Amino acid sequence: MKHVLVIGGTGFVGSALACRLAGAGFALTLPSRRPERVRHLSVLPTVRLVQADVHDEAALARLMAGHEAVINLAGILHGDFERVHVALPGKIGRAARKADIARLIHVSALGAAADAPSLYLKSKAAGEAALRQAYPAATIFRPSVIFGRGDSFLSLFARLARLLPIVPLVSPEARFQPVWVEDVVSALAAALAQPESCGATYALCGPRQYTLKELVAYAARVSGHPRPIVGLPFALSILQAWLMEFLPNPPLTRDNVWSMEVPNVCPQGSTLPFGLEATPLEAIAPSYLAGH
Ligand SMILES: NC(=O)c1ccc[n+]([C@@H]2O[C@H](COP(=O)([O-])OP(=O)(O)OC[C@H]3O[C@@H](n4cnc5c(N)ncnc54)[C@H](OP(=O)(O)O)[C@@H]3O)[C@@H](O)[C@H]2O)c1
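That is the input. Now the predicted structure with NAP docked in place:
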């Protein structure tokens, strides 16, 4: 298998995946709404960046021609969940069936469930269902929050700690089991090579669980800006998120707060599939947070 179409492949996970797969000799096509913003990927020798509207079914069919595998990483934290998380996976599944794509891999989110408390998690569950209905052999991954150089998670906390004397924190007791982006990439790459992963759904977690307050305190300390952290009660968390929704690209929404109402952790003892060993956050985060 050599030609892989990566939809949503220009973001945080996509960039790491493109580096890994290009290095392993795969030829990749990366559609983007604005390829000029991700020129750093075009320096990879076997990566082809193309401007395309992946929501257009005819465009999807053209993109898939000549590829043996498709990976879908398109996702958003706020905005039109129905379009990006539900309709798009359905379209990708149908197009992949028609184009006889041998492998389809989809990245959803840990906690995706029809009865989840947030629209984000509900839409991720509906997207999985739409994808499976169209292409039952798809392999689905559900990562917890993903960290690594370029993340918008620990790096955001480090930035906040640099700017604020005291960090007011929404959902301080929310639980996460952060997974390193390179471990996520390893799981995606392993699935490509393992036909027995067809039709399976895998959770992806790091080795340890943390509260959000512990993670923010850690990012603040390691980046050189230790700060007092004041956990906000639920009502104030919702109020802060609501105020942020007025910003053009809100760093937090009320839906994000509702997402954090369910622990974002794997069942006890489970981390990564395929015999992969999960990398501790403390082994990686200082390399990109120190001096942030
Ligand atoms: N990062 C995490 O902590 C985390 C945790 C759990 C699950 N996930 C899931 O993992 C996947 C990858 O996450 P990521 O962190 O790499 O995301 P990211 O950095 O925000 O990248 C998102 C990608 O989706 C594409 N995209 C965004 N809006 C789109 C739209 N309206 N139509 C079509 N494409 C659109 C972007 O492409 P262009 O802008 O180039 O068009 C980009 O390539 C997502 O499905 C996300 O939900 C991430």
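The longest helix spans residues 81-98.
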